[in-house]
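Ticket #4471: structure output looks truncated?

Reporter: J.K.
Steps to reproduce: submitted the chain below (393 residues) through the standard prediction queue, then opened the result file.
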Amino acid sequence: MRIVIVDDNPINQMIIGKILEDAGYRKCVTLNSAKALFAYLGMERPGGEYEEGNPDLILMDMMMPEIDGIEACRRLQEVDRLRDIPIIIVTALNDSLKLAEALDMGATDYVTKPINKVELLARIRLALRLRSELHWHKAKERDMSLELALAKQVQETVLSKPLVEENLRIEAVYMPSKMLAGDFYAWHPLGQGRYGVIILDMMGHGISSSLMCMYIASALQGALMRNPDPAEVIKVLNEYMVHLHNKEKWVRYYFTAIYFILDPVNRTIEYVNAGHPPGLIMIDGKELKRLSAGTCAVGFDDPIEVSKGIITYEHHVKMLLFTDGLLELCSADWDTATDTIEANMRDKPDISLEEHIGLLTNAEGMAGSRDDFCMVAIEAGSRCGSRGNGGRT
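Returned output as attached by the reporter:
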């Protein structure tokens, strides 16, 4: 425990030092000016290095030559590594405005002269206790940040990587509002050239939604092995979600999703929309449809009634799927926002996903996104080439 006493009056130095020594604080450093304090803390060295570590507390006189206690507090607050050192102002001034200014500049507390031993020691104990609690919370925050970074890395590994084949291309843009997100997408080969593709938006944000996405990513693998049919997959995922329902706590988890099977050989798309914003599909460069057939959000009902949509094409198909966070970029109304994406898809068929998002960002009535969002583009057929960025952002 190291306490620094900063006072230009030798008598005050002696009195405070004696009080501290009698109370068991034996490692004290006495300095006679703010400049001496800055030098002691290494503020005047190149890079501000300080080998001994920060003191646990500073007791500082208000009135000192050249640099007073208020200015000293202000300068200490400008140095990141010194900002958390508690500072108790020791002053003969009975000026509430000056004392308030000192507190505004970073002082933790104050005592007035003549010094009351009991009061000084009580305020020192309080300042040291608050410092200890602050360090505890900062250590917990560091641990949490490391765990969140690891969780983010794990979450990103379950997102499918861009797929580029001769007649098939799938890619995505993924933008979490926080470090962890409740949006998820994936595509899995089903054999004979077919792919099962899903995009979903889990209720809530952050850690809980991220964990639920990981849970569903695992459940999806099992559902695809049992029966990849879109209606059956949604029913199985609904069973997993209902299983989590805690009736005692009145918590019901749910998510919206679009899941479909793309069959480039037979040129068919079988899909289910489970309460999700309707995806868009351009068929043979002519007909633009919305993927709206399906059911309610997954996890609401048990059992769940599911209807499946089937779309056929001759030569080429292009699809855009997105979560509602993307729609918030231009409007809170799903239909209006989807109209904007649809118009861009029709008028600018070859733009990238990033350009789509840029157009939404610049749209009139932009609300700004406070939610996670992602956008997935799927292109199949003879016109597929190497367009796009080929990566995930």
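Triage note (M.O.): checked the attachment and the full token line is present. The chain is about 35% helix and 25% strand.
Status: closed, working as intended.
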